[in-house]
Amino acid sequence: MENKNLSIYELIKTSIQPNGELPEDFKLPSKDPNGVPWADGAMDGVFIYHTVRNEEDIESLKNIVFQISEEKFEEAQNNLENLDFSMISRSISLLNWIIQEKEKINANNLYQFASSQLATSKNIEVVKFCLSVLSIMDVERDIDTIEKVKTLALSDEFTLYCLDIIVKLENSNEEIFKIAKKVKDWGRIHSIAYLEVTNNKIKEWVLEEGCHNGVLPAYTALACAKKINLIEILNDEKISNKKFSDISYLINALLDEGPMMGISALENKEILIERYLEKAKYLSSTEDDYRAIMMIKEYIKDNKEIGNKFINICDEILNSEKTRNKITELIKDGNGYDIAKYLGIDTDKYALKYLETNNFLENPYIIYYILKRENMEKLVLFIEKNLPLEKLKGLPTDKFNQRTKKDKEVTFLDTMIRNLRNYTGIGENLIIYALNSPYVDMRYGAVNTLEGWKEKGYILSNDIIKNLKNLEKIEIDDRLKEKLNKLIK
Fold first, then answer.
1. Contact, 434 vs 418, CB < 8 A?
2. Which of 26-35, 99-108, 382-391 is predicted least confidently?
3. What is the pLDDT confidence band of residue 233, given thresholds at 50, 70 and 90?
4. Which domain of life is it from (predicted)?
């Protein structure tokens, strides 16, 4: 049976691997194939963490609930599937309304409809609607429905909605822990918020894995630090290097306050920093350790309420011969380049050598640590010889590079092209291949780089002009077509 004929539940269930998890590259069918590609769960995650919650109109959903109540299941299903709505912005209002109007709603019919649609619907928002409805109903003893919920929870798109049901089970924390270990992205972020640290096994896992997700560690850092009592862990006299490195990873996540509050929201943050640096003096040995010290120093510089005495300790550790030697070893292996740059270590020769002698596709961002023009010229020659450029060509589409493991060559060329904006005139041949990419973001990158060159007075070559004109004739993105037209003039 082809995937397009499967319901969402069937697609997830048949994709589960022997380890009980979904494959790393698992993705639900896009709700809008022509729109911006969102990772599973990302749209809801952004709404929860970065949007002011305004009450959305739920009149259409109210009418559908009444249709379900009157056992007009087919009509309700059609209306739900044809309704353009997002459940995340309506669930609270809708559930409050259902509770308020419970005397007018046939609960049995609502339950029957929601439970059956979990297994049969091919519509993402309909599944979320059903999960939301079931979260306020007595579903705990319905083994069949609970098993469906546990299966759906493996997809980051549905984990949050499933947790609202699973949290009502008698062994809820045990089940939440199982889910937290199996989901890796937005599902893990939501699971950490629900998970209670009731024993050492969970405590150790939260320290080791709680901040490891495919989105950003910062989303769970504050919750993890509070749930495991990070200061108490640092008070332990015997901490292994492995545990200290795990603590450093969490510290780094706490200090990254871009997406949300982290260390600043901790009452005892100064004590935490003091305890950490005491241990760091003799336990620091990994990239995460040194990055944490670096970030602590910068955090203290920007926060006058924390004593400057800690800056001296950071400098003492970072400027030691042991640290500089360790960082030099790290960058030889392709790691820690940001720390090396912070410490003033010349990264050029190490970055070029690493890219030329290792699998350069695995770490494209090392490109940014090549600063000398002559080294960038050498890298361009190396890439022209070693990247399968002809294979990357294709007619223009509106698709974006998904940056998955199978797209390594595309991702590397894209990174290279964007960086070449800083090296006027270098890598024209690579830019021509990028202009001929089927991926719209790659073509934008090439055009933006050429715009930067032109602003600096660079005269585009005949080959570049020729390819720009050819692309303008077939380009399908209107805004990019305008940019092409301006470049040619």
1. no
2. 26-35
3. very high
4. Bacteria
Residue that terminates a domain, selected from 316, 345, 374: 345
- From the centroid of its chain, how far is CA 183? 13
DSSP state at residue 112: H
Burial class from Cβ neighbours inside 10 Å (0-12, 13-18, 19+) for residue 140 reads middle
- Per DSSP, 137 falls in state S
Q: Are residues 210 and 162 in the same domain?
A: no
Residue showing tokens 């912005």: 89
Q: Which domain holds residue 98?
A: 1-196
54 and 96 in one domain? yes
The CA distance from 277 to 291, in Å, is 12
Q: How confident is the model at residue 1 (pLDDT cuts 50, 70, 90)?
A: very low
Same domain membership, residue 356 and residue 338: no
In which region does residue 354 sit, left (phi positive, over 0), alpha (psi from -120 to 50) or beta (all else)? alpha
End of a domain among 196, 218, 247?
A: 196
CB of 253 within 8 A of CB of 221? yes
**Domain match, 191 and 203 both:** no
0.85 cut: is pTM over it?
yes
Q: Are residues 340 and 363 in the same domain?
A: no
Q: How many residues does the chain have?
A: 489
CA dist 154 to 143, 145, 190, 250, Å?
17, 15, 12, 24
Burial tier of 112 (Cβ tally within 10 Å: 0-12, 13-18, 19+): middle
Work out how many domains the chain is built from and give that number: 3
Residue 329, amino acid = E
DSSP class per residue in 322-376? HHHHHHHHHHHTT--HHHHHHTT---HHHHHHHHHHS-GGG-GGGGGG---HHHH
